[in-house]
Amino acid sequence: MENDGRGSCLPPRGEGTVPYEGVWRFTAPAVDASVPQARHAVRDLLARQGVPASDDLIHGLLVIVSELVTNAVRHAALLSPMLAVEVAVGAEWVRVSVEDNHPYRPTALVADHGQTGGRGLLLVREITAEAGGACDVEHTASGGKVIWAALPLKPDED
Fold it and tell me: pTM value?
């Protein structure tokens, strides 16, 4: 994974910020080997920054990263030989996203239980909902897409 020049860009420190806040972006080729590399890079980044995330939350984020990078490799590589993984951490949330240059906007379809694949986005939506977060797909200015999931670092205390 390569830093595309925008990685390790921390927002200015001020009141209300915490030491682990920031945005990091990595690029990688759209190949199978990038799936575990992205997962390990995100895990190591969260640990290095001291992000106060539970083991369950980190596990969920890593599954999400794996699924999103896998989708980019399987479905976008022809038109997008590179992909970008971004991790944004705020005081109370963490957001992971994967960007590619393929214009197709995927939808989470109801999976056939006999199917062995095709459940990645359903899994992302389920993990996100269970954590009380949000996920979506957005078009980029260049005609590609970003698929993201944001999860709270602390459970709601209602």
Answer: 0.82
**Left, alpha or beta for 20 (phi > 0: left; psi -120 to 50: alpha)?**
alpha
Structure confidence by residue, pLDDT tens digits, 46-77: 999 999 999 999 999 999 999 999 999 999 99
| C-alpha span between 89 and 107 (Å, rounded) | 26
Note the pLDDT tens digit of each residue in 29-43.
999 999 999 999 999
- Helix H, strand E, coil C: the string for 98-149 is EEECCCCCCCCCCCCCCCCCCCHHHHHHHHHHHHCCEEEEEECCCCCEEEEE
48 and 22 Cβ atoms separated by less than 8 Å: no
Q: Residues 85, 41: contact at Cβ < 8 Å?
A: yes
**Two structure tokens written together for 157:** 């205390």
Q: Report which DSSP code applies to 9.
A: B
Of 133, 148, 130, the C-alpha closest to 92 is: 133
